């Protein structure tokens, strides 16, 4: 499977046509370069808030309303683009109401235009303390024609038990859409994605927002790049990096993901982190304080 992962600028749009043209251009560009799966970042959908005007887009609560009002239209656009290009598309996540709360939802489209989604599980301090976004659920594994795919949205990738739950359900690759405002935040997610690839002996695919959007407080500053990570083991790159873009430079990063190779390294790798995971369990409760 050839995957394309985005370093995506959040732009101001004066009208729907501007937004639709941008997303269509990005999708067709990736498809024309052979991508069979595309990964957009966390909260990239915040650019939809610009359609409601500067006052609403600049207000945290107002921006949620502005984006959620246009998510259905954005979903219809992505579904049609997935059908037109015959690709899988993980759309940029968006804050959407779910009952009495607002969740951070990444919607996933298959080549037939069918949509499912993954909600973020664990909120950052900004999401829970300032923006009132709540954890959604449940974790899902998507059985695609290439292999089984999971999604850990940004901060979720920093929690190994979430990835392990996906892998226990058969997951072979994990998509990591992210939104980080500083190099430190980007580094945390990148390290998390690389660690999950190591311990789960899988491939992780990280997408980022890049650049400034001063009109939208939620995503006013953005640092990142696209990256595709692997276990540094048999058949994979020794650095654990399959592909990586240039920091803060917009565009797609491409990589080939071989699911047979994932199965082989899980079976015959130089190390067998996935198989040996359970050996931790009787030991993690046995730590003692040793006078020294």
TrEMBL record:
It comes from the Bacteria. SUPFAM superfamilies: Carbon-nitrogen hydrolase (SSF56317). The keyword Hydrolase applies. GO terms for molecular function: hydrolase activity. InterPro entries: C-N_Hydrolase, C-N_Hydrolase_sf. Keywords: Hydrolase. Transmembrane segments: none annotated. CDD domains: nitrilase_Rim1_like. PANTHER family: HYDROLASE YHCX, NITRILASE-RELATED. This is Carbon-nitrogen hydrolase family protein. The lineage of its organism: Bacteria, Pseudomonadati, Pseudomonadota, Alphaproteobacteria, Rhodobacterales.
């Amino acid at each position: 499977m050839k995957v394309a992962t985005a370093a995506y600028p959040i732009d101001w749009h004066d009208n729907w046509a501007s937004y639709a043209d941008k997303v269509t251009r990005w999708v067709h560009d990736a498809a024309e370069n052979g991508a069979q799966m595309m990964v957009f970042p966390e909260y990239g959908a915040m650019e939809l808030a610009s359609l409601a005007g500067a006052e609403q887009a600049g207000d945290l609560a107002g921006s949620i309303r502005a984006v959620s009002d246009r998510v259905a239209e954005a979903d219809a656009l992505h579904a049609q683009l997935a059908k037109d290009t015959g690709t899988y598309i993980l759309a940029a996540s968006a804050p959407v109401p779910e009952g009495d709360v607002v969740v951070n939802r990444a919607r996933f489209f298959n080549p037939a235009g069918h949509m499912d989604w993954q909600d973020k599980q664990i909120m950052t301090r900004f999401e829970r303390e300032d923006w009132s976004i709540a954890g959604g659920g449940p974790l899902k594994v998507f059985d695609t024609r290439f292999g089984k795919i999971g999604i850990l949205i940004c901060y979720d990738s920093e929690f190994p038990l979430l990835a392990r739950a996906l892998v226990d359900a058969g997951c072979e690759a994990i998509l990591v859409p992210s939104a980080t405002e500083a190099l430190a935040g980007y580094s945390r997610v990148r390290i998390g994605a690389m660690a999950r690839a190591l311990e789960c002996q899988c491939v992780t695919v990280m997408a980022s927002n890049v650049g400034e959007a001063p009109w939208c407080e939620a995503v006013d500053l953005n640092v990142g790049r696209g990256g595709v990570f692997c276990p540094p083991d048999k058949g994979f790159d020794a650095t654990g990096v399959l592909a990586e873009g240039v920091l803060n430079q917009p565009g797609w990063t491409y990589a080939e993901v071989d699911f047979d190779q994932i199965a082989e390294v899980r079976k015959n790798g130089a190390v067998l982190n996935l198989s040996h995971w359970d050996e931790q369990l009787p030991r993690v409760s046995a730590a003692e304080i040793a006078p020294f």
